[in-house]
Every structure is written in C-alpha cells, then in structure tokens.
Amino acid sequence: MAKRIREKSKARKENADKRPMATAKYIRISPFKVRIVLDIIRGKSYTDAAAILKNTNKSAAPVVLKVLDSAAANAEHRDNISKSDLFVAEAFADQGPTLKRIMPRAKGRAYRILKRTSHITVILDSSNK
Question: How far apart are CA 21 and CA 121, in angstroms?
C-alpha cells in the first residue's frame, strides 16, 4: 500500500504546475469586487499590469498589486526569470469563508450581514518560451 502512495505522490509532483504564482488567502474583500480588477490585468505583461493597478481607483487594486508583486518576486528568486519577461497567465479570486454578523432592526428583529472573504491567486508565465 505504501508503494502506491509513493507512486501517486511522485506523479503529483511531476504533473504540478511549475509556473510562478502567489496566493493571498482570507482577504476581507468580496470576491465580486476583486474579479473586476483581475479582469483588467489578465493577459497583460507584468509591467503593464503593475502600472494599471497603481492607477486603478478600486479597493481591491492594492491587494491584487501585492499578490502580483509577490508572484514576480517568486519568479525572480526561484526561476531566475526577469520581471520584464513575465505576463499574467491566470488570475482568479475564489470565495473564502463568510463572516456572519447581525444588524439590529426595529421591533427586536435582526438582519444578517455577510462579510465575505477572498482567496486571490495570480499565476505568471514567461513570454520567451
């Protein structure tokens, strides 16, 4: 049985995505708001995407810029790829756990407030392949 587990583990490592990436988890912003910003930078070069995010007036832009910079730093450190050769191959925001809060209303009622969280992932790729 252990042999099969080792084989599956080896196969998983061989098939793993080797592209540089970064993930930010449990970010207290709705994934709907983050996806608007991610749609703008998807497919752009790293330098263009960073410039766009620095000048975008959305609440998710600084967070996405931080994840983008982290992915670029991972590419430089781990794979020795220059930032000028990188482009945003994939960018997506998944829903994290939702914090449930209540808002008191009239006559003893309470309305539910959903404070949503996001898991933001940015995957880069080199353009000189």
Answer: 7
